[in-house]
Structure formats: C-alpha cells, structure tokens
Amino acid sequence: MTGARVLVVDDEASIRFVLRETIEAAGHEVTECSSGDAALEAIAEQDFEVAFFDIRMPGPSGLELLGQLRATGRRPAVVIMTALNSFENAVEAMKRGAFDYLLKPFSTDDIPALIERALRRRALENEVRGLKQSGGARQAASEERLVGSSPRMIEVFKIIGRVARTEVPVLITGESGTGKEEIARAIHAASARGDGAFITVNAAAIPSELLESELFGHEKGAFTGADVARAGRFRQASGGTLFLDEIGDMPVALQVKLLRVLQSGELTPVGGRQSEKVDVRIIAATHRDLDAALEAGAFREDLLYRLRVVPIEAPPLRAHREDIPLLVEHFLERHAADAGGARTLLPETLERLRAHDWPGNVRELENALRRALALCDAEVLTPEDFDFLRAETRTPETPPDDGVEQWVKSEALAALARGDTLDLQRTLLTRVERPLIETALRHCAGNQLRAAELLGINRNTLRKKITELGIEVPGRE
C-alpha cells in the first residue's frame, strides 16, 4: 500500500521535519500542521488515510482531535505521539480509537511499517462497514462481540493488534463465556489471513476416537464407516486460521500427532501413506489450567510451549465490571429488534446488573438481556425484569451452609437455565480446591511446604494456586 495521504500535527518543527522526510521517502504524501486548529482545517479540506497527532500542542490536543474526528465523518488511522510515558495517556488514546501511540524520541525506522499496518487495518474497517451497510453475509463477528473500554480489555485489544501482524501461535485462556473465540476471530480478521477460512474445532465436543479424523482427514476405507475420503479441518483451514477450542480436553495420544504437524507443517490423513504440506495459523483456547494438567500428565509440555508462544487471558466479566454498560448497550441494540423494538434500562436496573457476579461472564449477560427482552412488554427494563438472577451474589469462596454438594447441584441447574455450560473446572477450583487449600494452610500455620505435603502437591503448584485464587496465607505479613 503506497501513495497514502498522511497528516503530521506537532508544534515542534524538528518532529515534523523528521516525520515528513521519513514518510515521503516511503512514497506517501505529507501535510504538516503545527496546531490542533490548523489540523481541523486540513481535515475538513481533504481525507487522510493516516494521521500523527501530538498530545500537547496549541489548540485542541491530540486526544481532543481524536474525539472531534467523529463529528467530521473522517476516519484516518491515528497514531498518538507523546513525550510522557504515561499509561493513562496510552489507555485514553486506545479508548478514543487511536491505532497506536509512539513515545518520543522514537526510531524513524519503524514509521514506514507502522503506516503500512495502519493502512491495512483501515482497509479492513472500510470493508466491514461496507458489508454492514449492504447487508452482506460476511460479518466481523469478532468486532461485534469484543466490546469494552476498561484497562483489562484495552490490553487485550492491544495484544490482538500486535499479534495479528505475525504468524505465531496464540493460546487464549479464560473462563467459559469470556469471549475466547471472539478474540481468536479478531486476530484472524486483522491478520494477513483475514480473507482466508476461519475453521473451529472444539476438542471437548468431538468423541476422542473421531477427533483425529476431524483434524487430519481420512482416506476412503481407513476405518469402518469411512465410505468416502474426508479433507479434515487442517486442510479446510489452509491459507487461513485453525482455532483449536478447549485444547485442554484433547487426548494425550492425539497431542503427539498434533505436535508433529505443528513442528513439520505436514500431515498424513488417517489411513494415508503420503504426507502433505499445510499452511495454517494455529490459535488455541482453553478454560483449563494447562500447567496443572501438565503436572498431572494430562498435557504434553512440548505441545504447551509450542502453542503458548503468545498467551492472552480473556478476563472474567467481574474483573471489568465498568464495561457492563457498554455491553448492555451493545446487546440491546443487537437483540431489541427481535423483541419488537428498542428498549432502555432504568439507572437502578443497570446498577443491578453491575452488582451481579456473572459466573457465566459475557455470555450470561447477553442471555439474561435476551430473556428480559423476550418477557418484557414495556419499553423500559426495570430491576424486576431480572428477578431470575440470583437475589444476592455470593463470593466464590463462600458455599452455603447446606454444603458444597447441594450448592453444586443448584449451580448446575442455574447454569442449565442460563443455557450455559456446566463448568466443572471452575467449580472444582473455587468450591473445592480453595477451601481445601485454606484449611491445609491454617492447619500448618501458614507453612506452605507442610501444607503442600498435606495436600499431595508440590510447593510450586501450591504457590501458583494461592496466587490464582487470591488466598491469604496465615502468618504472612
């Protein structure tokens, strides 16, 4: 992509000079401005594909310019420049829609590549907007679902942007319902493979005896019932992305074969004799603790290292409650038409939703809103429309007095009512492992080595679980 129109806005002449020389050398056209007001005039006169805004300058600041761009209808990919290494500035820039930010002084060697990435993303966004306006079949499901402006989500967005320009494997972890597949789709859509296939395989949903054929395909007559040859998901994803969901549930024997394909880039169908090359980008996801599975012998160490080149954690909804209003607005817009028109929420209704623990995460929130919309005849949703949610939110570490067994049964029924999955791993961690660990630590007066021996695990595993579950160790100051 060459010949783009680039706007450089900075009150320092030396910065404008360096950027102009670098950008023009890369084949782009540059317009310079020394203030925010001059930038607004330039933006009103012509459309720029990329813009570099300094944060502090006369007139509107770079961040203010970002906000005012929406009113003009212009959509350049904006790079914020700042001499202050401030986390707040970076987050605010991303929240307002900046493509990236540069810390002064920066290397001019990185500028041409940065512009190329910005142009690719802008082209993708224009394509998505065109498809939405025309009602096209291709929908950017990832952008539809990835909603948020909290620091936790901004970090996820930034990692997505960085990893999308690479081919490295990504491992997405997080509880059920946190949007792991949507993150994978976002990476695929923003990558150079975005026009290729995005193929999903759920290792937990396919019987182990069929999973090998599902992944690698099979030849005719390879086994009983193989009446015709099958390509397999790897070959279907050639040139695109293969999303291996719930990778933690894959049998160990099949993990060996998967590792061989990842190492060699070649596969052999079941019943086949010749291997063939495959060109696939791998993104995996799981709600399980793969380090614990590794220690238990249920997951291969070499495969874990191969998959976890770049880890991304999808945060639970309770960890970014400030995004609930945005998510509610998004889901209301998506589902209100099915319920007979637009709906709004009373402020106290929104507070009720913010206070709920959301064990099913974003998926549970969406299902709750769909249910309320379907059952409510009024234009406004009240707190009473969500009476099906638990009246009070218990913390995960506090089972009711009638015991863990009864709690598990009630939680299972509640999950089924929400249309959610029965998350065995999360239940074991929060309702069984946590009280056991706390009891052992109290019994051993905070001695972690003795507590680990009592629990039958090693000390490193115990320390990891103490950190993950936020357990307070007795006697620790």
Description:
It is a single chain. The chain is an alpha/beta fold. Strand 9 and strand 10 form a beta hairpin. The radius of gyration is 26 Å and the shape is globular. The longest helix is centred in the N-terminal third of the chain and has 24 residues, at 111-134. It has a five-stranded parallel beta sheet, with helices on both faces. It has a five-stranded parallel beta sheet with strand order 7-8-11-6-12. A two-stranded antiparallel sheet has the order 9-10. The protein contains 20 helices and 14 strands.
Enumerate the spans where pLDDT stays under 50 for 5 or more consecutive residues: 130-144, 391-403
**What is the arithmetic mean of pLDDT?**
81
The N- to C-terminal Cα distance equals 58 Å
Task: Report the helical percentage.
Answer: 40-55%
Q: What is the CATH architecture annotation of the largest domain?
A: 3-Layer(aba) Sandwich
Assigned CATH superfamily of the largest domain? P-loop containing nucleotide triphosphate hydrolases
What percentage of amino acids are in beta strands? Answer: 5-15%
Structural class: alpha/beta
Radius of gyration (CA) equals 26 Å
Overall domain count: 4
- Per DSSP E runs of 2 or more residues, the count of β-strands stands at 14
Q: Shape from CA axes?
A: globular
Which CATH first-tier class of the largest domain would you pick? Alpha Beta
Sketch the major β-sheet.
Answer: 5 strands, parallel
Provide the CATH topology of the largest domain: Rossmann fold
| Widest sheet: strand ordering | 2-1-3-4-5
